[in-house]
Amino acid sequence: MTRRNQSELDLTPMIDVTFLILIFFMVTASFSMQRAIETPNPENDLASRTAVAQDRDPIRLHVDRHGSFLLMATDWQKELVGKQELVSELAAAKLATPMITDLLIEVESAARLQALVDAMDAATIAGFHQFQLTEIASELI
């Protein structure tokens, strides 16, 4: 019986050390908070108590399922490909119509999320700070 007891190893100290190392790394690890994308709250059907004075129609940005953008205003529209081109055109539209501060982003339901993130990022860089997101069914287009 003594040979059998000698061949077995006591794993308790190794398990204790493993848990101590695990606790050490959990306590000392620095957790970085990821930046979140701020999205506007969905509008409800209740009437607003404040009147919003909007002199002109907002600039609309359409994001399609292929990742291309269509920038539309009341008197013009431009089809854009790529984030850099979108930033420059949004900045030009913002300079041309400084009284418009809102941007209406229309997204097809089959569009990639990266295209929406690029559109919101480009709008923020161009100076638009308020977005209104609308989802459009892809089969209607």
TrEMBL record:
Places the protein is found: Cell membrane
InterPro entries named among the record's database cross-references: ExbD (IPR003400)
Membrane topology term: Single-pass membrane protein; Single-pass type II membrane protein
GO MF annotations in UniProt: transmembrane transporter activity
One family name in Pfam for this protein: ExbD
Keywords: Cell membrane, Membrane, Protein transport, Transmembrane, Transmembrane helix, Transport
Protein name: Colicin uptake protein TolR
